[in-house]
Fold this protein.
Amino acid sequence: QVQLVESGGGLVQAGGSLRLSCAASGRTFSSYAMGWFRQPPGKEREFVAAISRSWRGTNRYYSDSVKGRFTISTDNAKNTAYLQMNSLKPEDTAVYYCAADTTNTAYPYEYDYWGQGTQVTVSS
């Protein structure tokens, strides 16, 4: 069983930055693929970013809407994934969820654990 707890959401002005954190339980965090998703008000949940780590290296994936502004990363010592969000726009307003794929599937991954979400609101 893996638990994911997001934090770092809040209210920020357009052009500002936030860093979301996702603390994960589990002894093999370094082998998980981690993803961030978001659900804007009244819309479906959508993919934001993903990261996988292996002996081959690290792979990162981003949606076109956040590429160049958001950065996904992990800290294995802290069992934590991060989403650094810069140049925020009002359309980035959403509940942000982190997710873990613990079964080593290939991209776009099959996430089997999800966090409870954290609200990000960007004012214009």
Q: What stands out?
A: The first strand starts at residue 4 and ends at 7. The chain has a mean pLDDT of 95. The chain has no helices and eleven strands.
